[in-house]
């Protein structure tokens, strides 16, 4: 597993996130209570969340790479299962806690937690495929 693999894993999860949130944009906007303009686009949007997401994907992929090397997770099946577990049992519960204290709808937790779960599974696959 090299730096290029980490970059590829982060990019794969980022691209999946674009697909995930484009597909679920209307329910996500409603659950997150985002104000939209007359065209249905979020008001006051900027590129900052996208840049932060890219950096976060690199951090997560880098740490997953480290964990995978230490745990000898070296097959695609192990990478998928481990990534899925990281997303489902580490990241998604944290998302749920933040949304619960923020009094956000549980639907938002399902959407965001789903991305965390499947995005980490994709990272796991990419990290172990090369």
Walkthrough of the structure:
The chain is mainly α and 130 residues long. The protein has one domain. It has five helices and no strands. Helix 4 packs antiparallel against helix 5. The mean pLDDT is 95.
Please describe the structure with a list of short key phrases separated by commas or semicolons:
78% helix; globular; mainly alpha; 130 residues
Short overview:
The chain contains five helices and no strands. The protein is mainly α and 130 residues long. α1 packs across α3 and α3 (48-70) crosses α5 (106-129).
Write the layout of secondary structure elements.
Layout: H1 3-23, H2 25-32, H3 48-70, H4 76-101, H5 106-129
Helix pairs in contact: 1-3, 1-5, 2-5, 3-5, 4-5
- Count of the separate structural domains: 1
Q: H/E element string?
A: HHHHH
Q: Report strand %.
A: under 5%
**Could you give the count of β-strands?**
0
Name the average pLDDT. Answer: 95
Oligomer classification? single chain
Helix-residue proportion: over 70%
CA distance, first residue to last residue: 7 Å
What's the shape?
globular
Largest sheet: none
Count of alpha and pi helical runs: 5
| SS class | mainly alpha
What is the alpha-carbon Rg in Å? 16 Å
Low-pLDDT runs: none
């Amino acid at each position: 597993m090299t730096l290029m693999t980490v970059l590829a894993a982060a990019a794969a999860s980022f691209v999946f996130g674009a697909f995930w949130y484009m597909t679920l944009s209307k329910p996500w906007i409603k659950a997150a209570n985002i104000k939209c303009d007359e065209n249905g686009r979020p008001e006051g949007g900027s590129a900052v969340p996208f840049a932060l997401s890219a950096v976060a994907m690199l951090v997560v992929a880098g740490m997953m790479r480290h964990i995978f090397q230490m745990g000898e997770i070296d097959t695609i099946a192990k990478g998928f299962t481990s990534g899925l577990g990281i997303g489902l049992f580490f990241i998604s519960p944290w998302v749920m806690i933040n949304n619960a204290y923020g009094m956000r709808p549980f639907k938002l937790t399902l959407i965001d937690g789903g991305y965390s779960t499947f995005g980490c599974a994709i990272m796991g696959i990419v990290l172990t495929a090369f």
